[in-house]
Amino acid sequence: MSELQDTARRLLDEGLVQVVIGWEEGPRGARPVFVTSAADCERLIFDARCVHNLATFLNPRRSQITALGKAAVVVKGCDAKAVAGLLREAQLERAGIVLIGVRCGGVAGEPATLAPPALSAETVSARCWGCDVREPESVDMLVGEAQPEPPVTADLDERVAALDALSPAERFAFWTKELSRCTQCYACRQACPLCCCERCIVEKTEPQWIETSPHPRGNFAWHLTRAQHLAGRCVGCGECERACPVGIPLGLINRKLQQVVYELYGYTVSEDPAVPAPIGAYATDDTQDFIE
Amino acid sequence: MSERALLLTHDGLATLVEELAAAGTPAVAPAWAGDAGRAAGASAAARETEYRTVSGAAELAFGERLPRLSLKQFFLPPTEVLFSWRRVGGGVELIPPPTDFAAQVVLGARPCDAAALPIVDKVMNWDYADELWNARRAATTVFSLACGVEDDSCFCSAVFLEPAAARGSDGRLTPVDGGYLVETFSDKGEAFVAAHRESFTDLPAGAGGEVLAVQAESFRATARERVAGNLAVDHGRLRDWLDHHFDDPFWAGLGPRCNGCGVCASVCPTCHCFDIVDEPESVGRGVRRRNWDTCQTCVFTLHASGHNPRQDQNARFRQRVEHKFLVYPLKFGDVLCTGCGRCSRACPTGQDLAEILADIDARAAIDAGAGAVGDEGAADEAAS
Amino acid sequence: MSVVNQPQRSGERAPDDSGRATAEFEPRITAFVCNWCTYTGADLAGTSRLHMASNVRIIRLPCTGRIDHVFIVKAFERGADGVIVSGCHPADCHYTAGNYHARRRFGVFRELLSFLGVDPERLTFSWVSASEGGKWADVVNETIERVRRLGPFDSYHGLAGAATPADDPFARFEMPAGATGGTAAAPADGHDAASQAPSGTGDAS
Amino acid sequence: MSRIGVFICHCGENIARTVDCGAVAEALREHPGVVVAEDYKYMCSDPGQQLIKKAIADNDLTGVVVCACSPHMHEKTFRRAAAQAGLNPFVVEMANIREHCSWIHDDRGEATAKAIDTARTIVEKVKHNKPLQTIRIPVTKRALVIGGGIAGIQAALDIADGGHEVVLVEKEASIGGHMSQLSETFPTLDCSQCILTPRMVEAYQHPRIKLYTWSEVEKVDGYIGNFSVTIRRKARSVDEDLCNGCGDCQAACPSRRIDSEFDAGLSRRPAIYTPFPQAVPNMPVLDREHCTLFKGRRKGLAKDACGKCKETCLKGAIDYDGQDTFVTEEIGAIVVATGFQLYDIGREQPAGLKGYGEYGYGEVPDVIDGLQFERLASASGPTGGEMLRPSDGAEPKTVVFVKCVGSRDPEKGMSYCSKICCMYTAKHTMLYKHKVHDGRAVVFYMDIRAAGKGYDEFSRRAIEEDGAEYIRGRVSRIFRDGDKVKVWGYDTLSHRQVVVDADMVVLATAVRPQPGIGELAQKLSVSYDQDGFLNEAHPKLRPVETNTAGVYLAGACQAPRDIPESVAMAGATAAKVLGLFSADELERDPSVALVDERTCIGCFNCEHVCPYGAIEHRDVCDMEGHVCGHVAYVNPGVCQGCGTCVAVCPSKSVELAGFTDDQVYAEINALAGW
Known about the structure:
The structure holds four protein chains of four kinds.
Chain B: E1 6-9, H1 10-23, E2 27-32, H2 43-46, E3 49-53, E4 79-88, E5 91-95, E6 104-109, H3 111-124, H4 131-139, E7 140-145, E8 171-176, E9 179-184, H5 187-195, E10 201-202, H6 207-228, H7 235-244, H8 263-267, E11 274-282, E12 285-292, H9 313-332, H10 342-346, H11 353-367, H12 377-383
Parallel strand pairs in B: 2-6, 6-7, 7-8
Antiparallel strand pairs in B: 1-9, 1-10, 2-3, 4-5, 4-12, 8-9, 11-12
Helix pairs in contact in B: 7-11
Chain C: E1 3-4, E2 29-34, H1 38-47, E3 56-61, H2 69-77, E4 82-87, H3 98-115, E5 123-127, H4 133-150, H5 154-157, H6 190-195
Parallel strand pairs in C: 2-3, 2-4, 4-5
Chain D: E1 4-9, H1 21-29, E2 34-40, H2 46-59, E3 63-68, H3 71-84, E4 92-96, H4 98-102, H5 108-127, E5 135-138, E6 142-146, H6 150-161, E7 165-169, E8 184-185, E9 190-191, H7 192-205, E10 209-212, E11 215-223, E12 226-233, H8 248-252, E13 258-259, E14 268-269, E15 272-273, E16 285-286, H9 292-299, H10 308-312, E17 325-331, E18 333-336, E19 340-342, E20 367-369, H11 370-377, E21 398-405, H12 421-435, E22 440-445, H13 455-464, E23 469-472, E24 475-481, E25 484-491, E26 496-502, E27 504-509, E28 511-513, H14 517-523, E29 551-553, H15 563-581, E30 585-588, E31 593-595, H16 605-609, E32 615-621, E33 627-634, H17 644-648, E34 654-656, H18 661-670
Helix pairs in contact in D: 1-5, 2-3, 5-18, 6-7, 6-15, 11-12, 12-13
């Protein structure tokens, strides 16, 4: 990790940035850290437990972070895609941040282990299925060893397909059961690097489109809206699902929509901010089989 | 209360659960969460448990992982109706909620979850007696299950409790060979045992009984010992430090990592803040509900004017710590925390309350000129 | 304003909601239509005296581009059994592109709803121009018949429990009545989860 | 607290027949917020409106709902009435219980129930209506006329004479259009050029008309009163200021075998040419496609292969290196007068059309179309007005005229009637007979459509006085037979096969819109029909307007039109434009979008989807005045109120006045009761 630490140290020493956002060893495993002094750079780590999407901390409305000054952020593939999303939506200026890319061969399902697990089909995060980024390209510098492809995990697509194979009534029953656990704590939203509104639609009260009461009706409205607003924007980092305190499989919904925007509009989320998102653009010959 | 403890064999527990189900008495107990969607490739999740109304012993997850959410939801549901309203002619008809809740029992509550109930009772009966909370409390008998300690994030012993604390429990089960040693601490507990006496068996007289009693005690002792190593703080100086360091730069070190999601509050057995919303069902018809809320979100303190007294997450996280360890203790003589450690486990960004308390306590120690952490006097002082 | 405060324990829905299931089922359809094409087409259907079933309630918007997915969600919450979204044909949009944007958003949202178990048969998306009064009549009648076959969407309407304080807080974390598979331990995968759903819950499939 | 008045119209029996209006009023009186609900026989009548005005005054209403016909019918009426009673017109809405209810349902119970729901829905909406003020925007009092045919010229002259500047854009080298190609015109047989040329010159010399020939509209930005139009000035290769139209260059040009567009391919022209002697401006254009020099340059020859015209030109006006240039004009109103083309049945057919290969057009030289006949008959034509057929220059003794070639024929051509063919064919037979007295004019027709002042008399004259033989029936085949052209037809009146050995055949081919009309329509965001003709805003009430405010239609771009109609339409558009220009400011519907800057995060999704470029970036400054972010701002003058931005705003920080989220929510919520 010295390469990462040295890079961070240099950036801070040379005053190119005032804070480096990365990962450190916490009491329960890896966790995000905000290093503001060169001396603390030795705390920086990167291993398979570094699952958090650090782009989340670039939300310009997190004033406690912007107050720290110009930031360098350590990004693996999914983080880099999220940064691209923020750039695409004018939430960041590229010149305003430094991106330290780390080569990533997949991460664990969960950061709370005292040592990085050997990645296997069992331990690797579902998010890594089909991830094509070993080396983020949009970065200012790249550190770490070349990485192998992540182990082939239980295919998220299979689980989506299993649900697709059900009747609507069966899917409805499945999701009602899952969503009935939701307490609308919005941890999924807060953990999402792209959910960065000043005031989320659920917090708009006139009118209150989405009922904040965590009965299944309010929960359906919330999760339908969360997913729709992320359609074509979601980078599939899976942080929403990991953050959920009641284990709602949000990854299934996000994955489904990734499939949909690809099948309908040939869109896959890009690390290039110049590539427009599919919602907000259109083609005159877009499919309209579903329209009478 | 009970002079002589009883034994609840595993079979006895099974029959008890079935009996209750048959009688239509909801029995809430830790049960396997095992939600289908995550079954594939989510073995960790498959081990998760939750408090739930159970209908058979097969569902029970006694002595397994700590349930995802605390018991709170059965006394302060994530959403509950305060009243519904309807226009009638020129006026409005208010239909208040029923408060005659059917009796229910909690079997195998974590002592830290059970202990939270009397702590929250205080705020629920301070200037206004909360009917709904109190009615549910009254309708519920709580049997806790002596805890073997979840992991290093547990710190009940640092907040005047212990893994087998009796506080908030009407009775307690302690694992022993063949089942659980049963003690009761209240008339409610007594009454429940009496009502289902046939499910319980007498502790074998003489040596046999002694053995089980010893087993039970050693189980509790082991747990007590294990948790003690996790954290110890001097609440006196901790409060004092908090009281004098509202603007300490220390807080700026906590905010950045925090997502402001309030998962900590959702899973917390003692967090009790709620939001009140009106939900129309149609024209001239609607429902007023109260829903869980949390001081960790930016809108919690947002004024209509647009001003927000808690500007950033630093201030919001400070609020969480100060309310639990300064404000509530000063007002109600109780720390608003039972050391269950759920917040640390659930936090998506690894914010760790035990770590933070230790950190503050160390700073407090320096301020207080004292050296070592956790002097014994603290507990007595706060308890008295 | 006089306040009648009479405690009453009522699990029943408000009077104007009751008795739907029992009587011959008449679907409630909410239609979100654009002002320039479909609304005018519906006007034409009227001036041409094209008779159609009366189950549709029209909400007029300037353009399909204005129609937000939350409209559809809210319509279902408020008792709709089916929803129609209709506007100008491609290249005919009065605002040149609103319908193209709507086409994308609803192309995705329809899939999303379906994935969460809302039968797409309950949704009609259509292009009806100002000159297609006849087509509007067909869209209306066909949607009504399709939704009639599917039956009332009570599984969605009931998601918040009865709209009275009678909903049992202890059942809070159990499956909402009439919607799902009860509280039995969750099975291994979606198939089983679903097979546990009492028949007639969710959409009739 | 809302105080809503609900007024239910019987519309005579139209509504009352199926809707129990009394019951609707009864039900609405019970609805929260409604203080008065009344029904009346004719709410739009004067007493009806009085009733509403009185109710507004008596009950101090904050909103009005009129349950009657479609808002498209009478919304303006009732809003005006409310305004007269001192209420803001935009708190008045209509519940459509006629077109959407009483006219489409039989069951009185159902219809009444639906009417009540509809009324309630609108009442709930109106509770959230905000008083709005009409938006006033400045008007640039300059008009753009696209197309320099008779329609365009007339519109330009009328507007310019009305005192306003006009920019006239013509894609050809000269204005004049098809009319300049015609010999005589029906029904008066006066010489086309004699009446047109003076108008052309007048337009050219008019102090307030700016003429761009050999130019096309490239781009149209902005909106009514404030268009910004970019015009492509195609490289003419001749300096318009230097050229004096002497014609030496044309004489010098070596390549002379190019089909003349003006003579419809019946004569040849040089590569540098003036379309016709009376061209306006009388100035040549270099046809770079056929020019030897440019052919050479395209081949990449080192030195230019020719240069004769440049050498000859004493004024040095020839410029081989000029490129297309662009000018941008600020415009307040646009008149589209792009005219028509004839269905060219010779070459490839429009998509899905079978065409008329069996008529031998394009193969048999003596099978020509109407426009070619005009040139043959014209004194300025290739034959100097003598009636000589193309193949051998002999005088045709038998000429067959075939009508409806490609018109009224969904099978093989267009389904519509081209309208002008009946009259010009009659005219052709006359012109022919006047030139070839012993000649025989045979006309195959489906019907004779001669509706118009003096039209029927005219076509009768062709038959009765000039002896044209009219055969009712279609022609199945036309082919060459020695020096004759054989025409196989069928007389549907006498039910017999007809075979004519003709010397020449004239096909009255269908009128179609100009090629490229689709692209222009999209630049103007004007819709067009399946045949490509531009759509008027309303076929009866707004025949020369389009659905895009500030864009008007004149002549054959809207449908087949003859000269009098085109001129009449041109006058009508001029009247519309002058009306628009009569005020310094234009009043616009205030139903536009508004951004909530407190919650906008400046993601600019709205900007991506706005069809009008109405979204602007606004800086947000902190307390010290430093720019700390950007938010979206909607230019109310540019916004047309589609609301697409509202739907794509994730945080719902944009509202559309008149269709706010509050209003829509209230409507949906109101439906929960039924």
